[in-house]
């Protein structure tokens, strides 16, 4: 038996009529109503390149947290941060952390690296063939770079890392991508570079694949934690003892003890990073601003460090080694997502690092707020008040 096919209009599939036909089809097939998903405000004509079989809209609640005070090199000042979520307490908790850090003078943010990858693999008759190929690649980097950059206006091939294994050589092409996230850009550029390699390498290549999975696209990995994928951004602050006591009802000593204890627990559990809940803030801002939501898998990796200062205050930092964000292209130009970006002054060219700094500061606020709630034993009561666990 052949299942009925979802309706499509071969002449123009991005119209309200085409979407309505698909809703009617799904309603007939499933017996469920799609009345709410059929209510939206923008023209479907803007969607080519973003989705196929456009049928309607899934709406999420949007709240603004803040303001968060950012003392960055690209983001400077107070920002209200859009967060799309269905988890009660989340926006309130981030806002609480933002108040604490704002009264402490703001969060210092620094983008320390910026790179996006594609990692092809080449196989040879033996390991020596792979080694010789690696030498040739290094010697011919300028020509490989030129071939890659014929496909893009903003992408630049920065360097090529080499990882030999068995009779294969894995290459990790590192690009800067401007204000785009850049995965597709890097794939297209690397494909052009590989074609040039195949046409010009004088030796024998047994086979090659455009992706050898050492870029670990949309998957967490240790190599991206060490070498960066997207923006590597660090947020840091020193929280005065009195502020922690007055606003969070805790102390630097209690916060530090909880941090050390949780790191040991995470180590025993095999956790891949030592953050508290960075995915909460990152996912909610990603959805609100039109980022590729699957990139949360890489972007949420965090390296948290804390110290009690000689003055008795609390230094706290969050390093996000693989924060993948865009302010141009992809879903950022859709109507509501663009509005959210514009509310922070982050839409368009020249704004990706600014957005990265705001998100890193937001993550820090959530980490401190939740950590303090656990230490002061307010975690459960806050969810009872704001969240799903209402009596």
Automatic annotation (TrEMBL):
Name assigned to this protein: hydroxymethylglutaryl-CoA reductase (NADPH)
EC category name: oxidoreductase
Keyword NADP: yes
PANTHER family noted in UniProt: 3-HYDROXY-3-METHYLGLUTARYL-COENZYME A REDUCTASE
Pfam families: HMG-CoA_red
Molecular-function GO term, any one: hydroxymethylglutaryl-CoA reductase (NADPH) activity
Upper classification of the organism: Bacteria, Pseudomonadati, Pseudomonadota, Gammaproteobacteria, Cellvibrionales
E.C. number(s) listed in UniProt: 1.1.1.34
Organism: Parahaliea maris
Classification via InterPro entries: HMG_CoA_Rdtase (IPR002202), HMG_CoA_Rdtase_cat_sf (IPR023074), HMG_CoA_Rdtase_eu_arc (IPR004554), HMG_CoA_Rdtase_NAD(P)-bd_sf (IPR009023), HMG_CoA_Rdtase_sub-bd_dom_sf (IPR009029)
Membership in a protein family: Belongs to the HMG-CoA reductase family.
Keyword annotations of the record: NADP, Oxidoreductase
GO annotation, biological process: coenzyme A metabolic process; isoprenoid biosynthetic process
């Amino acid at each position: 038996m052949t299942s009925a096919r979802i309706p499509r209009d071969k002449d123009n599939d991005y119209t309200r009529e085409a979407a309505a036909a698909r809703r009617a089809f799904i309603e007939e097939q499933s017996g469920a109503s799609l009345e709410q998903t059929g209510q939206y405000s923008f023209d479907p004509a803007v969607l080519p390149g973003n989705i196929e079989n456009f049928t309607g809209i899934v709406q999420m609640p949007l709240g603004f947290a803040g303001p968060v005070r950012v003392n960055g090199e690209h983001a400077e000042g107070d920002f209200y941060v859009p967060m799309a979520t269905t988890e009660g307490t989340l926006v309130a908790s981030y806002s609480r952390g933002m108040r604490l850090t704002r009264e402490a003078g703001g969060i210092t943010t620094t983008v320390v690296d910026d790179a996006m990858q594609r990692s092809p693999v080449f196989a040879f008759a033996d390991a020596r063939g792979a080694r010789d190929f690696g030498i040739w690649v290094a010697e011919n980097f300028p020509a490989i770079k030129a071939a890659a950059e014929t496909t893009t206006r903003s992408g630049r091939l920065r360097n090529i890392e080499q990882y030999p294994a068995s009779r294969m050589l894995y290459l990790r092409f590192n690009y800067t991508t401007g204000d785009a996230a850049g995965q597709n850009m890097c794939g297209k550029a690397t494909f052009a570079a590989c074609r040039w390699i195949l046409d010009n390498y004088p030796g024998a290549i047994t086979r090659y694949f455009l992706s050898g999975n050492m870029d670990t696209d949309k998957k967490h990995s240790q190599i991206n934690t060490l070498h960066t994928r997207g923006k590597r951004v660090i947020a840091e602050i020193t929280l005065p003892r009195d502020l922690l006591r007055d606003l969070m009802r805790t102390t630097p000593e209690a916060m530090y003890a909880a941090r050390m204890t949780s790191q040991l627990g995470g180590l025993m559990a095999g956790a891949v990073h030592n953050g508290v809940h960075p995915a909460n803030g990152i996912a909610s801002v990603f959805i609100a601003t039109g980022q590729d939501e699957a990139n949360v898998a890489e972007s949420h990796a965090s390296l948290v460090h804390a110290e009690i200062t000689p003055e008795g205050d609390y230094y706290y930092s969050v390093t996000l080694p693989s924060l993948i964000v865009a302010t141009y292209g992809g879903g950022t130009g859709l109507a509501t997502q663009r509005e959210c970006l514009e509310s922070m002054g982050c839409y368009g060219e020249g704004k990706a690092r600014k957005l990265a700094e705001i998100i890193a500061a937001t993550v820090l606020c959530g980490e401190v707020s939740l950590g303090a709630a656990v230490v002061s034993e307010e975690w459960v009561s806050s969810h009872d008040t704001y969240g799903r666990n209402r009596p």
